[in-house]
Write a structure and sequence with these properties.
Length: 325
């Protein structure tokens, strides 16, 4: 190799080093997690889990179980926990059958402060227009399940949807007389419930029902009262002997309440009934092999329940590609 060629090569190498891309020495700091969306095929249903955010629930809010037992159950389960409590997801679920879109619960919108209220945005990121939603099925009338009926401007979020709320929950949460006699800690929720449903009531889009009455095709409301007077869980038939049970607030502390179903949540309006409903929903899901979608299970909150002696265990669904179209 001649000297001029060596010099040219050395110069080229030097220039290449100077022009090396910045990412070679720059530390990358992600600013956001991936969109809170996950899809699962259940028979002929396309189920989309929509993440709303997380809330912190303290261990002390578990009742009917000794603190030492709670500690043992949480040990090596690695549930994120800080001074405010255990990380608890808030999820909603969009279910598509053909061209029909059903949303189960709507998240918190602006009712619980920053870090939540992501359902509507994640629904759009999943490729859906809120105006396409045909039915909104509410498991119950707590703020983290119905405040999302309104958008950030307090306008109707789902303008073409019929909203389904159990008659027992509507009679309780929408009645100012109930508010006066309610425990102090939950009184704030009454005004939020009335505000969220008001425009749907005005337009005739709020439909009150009782379990057993006719509902949208393929949908059954299972009475699972206890957490609230009219709490229901929604069983949606997917054909091919498959079904998904969207069970609302049957579980708040997944690391404890599957293994110890008798552990109640402080906010349950009727703890005895809530425990009975938890056992019943878990047993039916386990025996039927149903998919379960849980509002407060770790996102995406989709999986199955299996029996373990007199108790149960949560079996999270595995990540799976969508079927070819």
């Amino acid at each position: 190799m001649s000297f001029p060629r060596v010099r040219v090569l050395a110069t080229a190498l030097l220039l290449a080093a100077v022009a090396a891309p910045a990412f070679a020495t720059t530390t990358h700091h992600p600013l956001q997690q991936v969109p809170g969306v996950y899809h699962q095929q259940v028979g002929d249903l396309e189920v989309t889990a929509l993440f709303d955010g997380t809330v912190a629930l303290g261990r002390s809010e578990l009742v009917g179980i000794a603190p030492g037992a709670v500690t043992r159950l949480l040990d090596h389960r690695y549930v994120p926990e800080d001074g405010k409590g255990l990380q608890t997801a808030v999820n909603a679920y969009l279910i598509q059958r053909g061209n029909h879109l059903t949303l189960v619960d709507t998240g918190t919108a602006g009712c619980f402060g920053p870090g939540l209220g992501q359902v509507l945005g994640n629904l759009r990121k999943a490729g859906y227009d809120p105006a396409e939603v045909d039915d909104v099925l509410l498991t119950h009338a707590h703020p983290d399940h119905l405040c999302g009926l309104l958008d950030a401007q307090d306008k109707v979020a789902y303008p073409n949807a019929t909203v389904w709320l159990s008659d027992a929950d509507a009679a309780y949460w929408l009645d100012p007389a109930s508010e006066a006699g309610a425990p102090q800690g939950v009184r704030f929720a009454f005004a939020l419930a009335r505000k969220a449903v008001a425009p749907y009531v005005a337009s005739g889009k709020l439909h009150r029902f009782r379990p057993g009455q006719a509902l949208p095709n393929g949908v059954t409301a299972l009475d699972s009262h206890g957490h609230t007077p009219g709490h229901v869980s929604w069983k949606i038939d997917g054909g091919e002997r498959q079904a998904v049970l969207v069970w609302g607030d049957i579980v708040h502390f997944h690391a404890v309440q599957f293994a110890q179903p008798q552990a109640a949540y402080e906010a349950d309006s009727d703890r005895t009934a809530a425990i009975a409903s938890r056992r019943a929903m878990m047993a039916q899901a386990a025996d039927g092999g149903w998919w379960v979608a849980g509002a407060h299970l770790p996102f995406p909150g989709l999986g199955h329940v299996r029996r373990e002696g007199e108790a149960f265990a949560w079996v999270p669904g595995e990540f799976a590609p969508l079927p070819a179209r």
